[in-house]
Amino acid sequence: MQYKNLTIIGTSHISRESVNLVKSAINKDNPEIIAIELDKNRLHSLLSKQKSKFSIKAILKIGIKGYMFSLLGAWAEKKLGKLTGVSPGEEMITAAKLAKKHKIPLALIDQNIEITLKKFSKALTWKEKWNFLVDLIKSAFGKKEKIEFDLNSVPEEEIIEKLMNKVKVRYPSIYNVLIKDRNKILAKNLFILMKKDKKIIAVMGAGHCKEVISLIKDMEAFSVSQQIKKNKN
Questions:
Q1: Cβ 94 vs Cβ 21: under 8 Å
Q2: Which residues contact 20 (CB under 8 A, 6 or more apart)?
Q3: Could you tell me which of 120, 123, 132, 203 has the fewest CB atoms within 10 Å of its CB?
């Protein structure tokens, strides 16, 4: 997905195709900046191949619900990663290593993970907890609503839309914290980078790409309107 001097590589964090896409794009396009959907703590955790550890103080700060979600998410990605033979976040590690190898500036454009988890703890509602329990029971005993895609590849845009819409309806607070709010952060940081007028490759989960581009366009339009107002005055 390309817009002006920005190319976004939409990935699945456990697919071999994503790793290959990142390698191919960086080696072919010779970007001047590489941006990845990580913060400093998560990048360090991935590069060191160590689990993110939270002290008791940090757990109390981010909230028990946020902490439990991080454990559950890491466990699920690890299990799925074993099916594809790709460690979770390997495409991000690949981008970071290629940036270092080719001496390309690396930009970490995501929100601090502790802020995200803290927001998650505060936002999760009782209704969403109930929905989670119901969905869990349905997946075990009920009729399953299937959205099929290959774990080894990046899902098609239509499938991503279906998944995002399902999360919006069933878990609106979770969607806002994990997707909507972070999209704003990702877009803002990329918008700032784009002003440097350098060729940028950004690597992020495929579910973020479309909205991030839309937000960047909105920021540009607002910036232009503000400049016009300023010139008139």
A1: no
A2: none
A3: 132
